[in-house]
User: What shape does this take?
Amino acid sequence: MKDDFFIGNDLVDLCLPENQAKVQNKRWLNKIFVPAEQHLIEQATEPNTMAWLLWSCKESAYKVAIKQGMLPNYRPLDFVVELDTPQNHLICAKVHHPMGVCYTQSAQNTYFVHSIAAPKAFVLRHIFAHTHKFTNLVDTLPAKAWHLPLLQAIAHQYGFDASTLSIQKQLHNVPVLCQNGQVLANFDSSLSHDGVWAGVAIYNY
Assistant: This one.
């Protein structure tokens, strides 16, 4: 697979109590955000949402960097977010990191932030992204249970039979989309969950 086609995603549940107090923790801010990013948070109308937006951009870019060969030793300060002009109600950014640059697009509302990332900006326009809300915390569910609605959305998008699809993990927990147990060629995928939300991103190249 060409590096250009690697994608990542990250989702943050803004309604989780533990996600609403982090922005007041200066030690946490210093561990995660460079001074320029902290300035963005301080100047934002909703500092907490801005912090998690920047976090999700970093996390989604990290998932791309892992696929590009970076060892899984995540240092958030090595992933620096540069916000760009919004497009079509999406928040755009560049993330500079040890493997290069990633481009991100983020959707946010009062409930969650969901970011997708790719090494080339054009890939973002062709990523299928889907989010699903559960009644229980996703961490309390078995993987097959929370994967199911995401697989159903993928099946509907690409014309598959959902019962034949599965998501399996490879090296460094990188997810791959499978049909009847076989990895589907020409698809790259990324999963994320937090609180009662889960998200998936798929690129068919």
